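Quick note —
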Amino acid sequence: MDFRRVNDRPNTFVVVFEPGEEAMSTLTAFAREQSLSASQVTAIGGFERVVLGYFDRDRRDYQPIPIEEQVEVLALIGDIVGDGDDVKVHVHAVVGRRDGSAHGGHLLEAVVWPTLEVVITETPAHLRRRFDPETGAALIVM
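Predicted structure written out below.
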């Protein structure tokens, strides 16, 4: 992974992933290293394989949707929320298969190929997530 700060008002980073890197763990580590507490994330690129997730309301957990083939990242959007080591990266992705079909969901894990080009823009407010027992999800607390 390589990155560059391209703006400082607001802090904006371009992060370019290398083939073979695991997207979610690398992005989370980057957010910790840069002490990001509230940021927006967008990206395009490709994955050699990916696991998306569908939030099952009854189970209150993500149902994994593995895609064991190369896909294009058509859209990736999400946020980074946290404090210090307690950083949460919440990202949704839409990926396209060879036949043009698209699949989307919460990004659980993904191996980059050939690249993933991410733009992270820090917001001025510090945000936190808290577990909501009614929905079973970690939601941003205002």
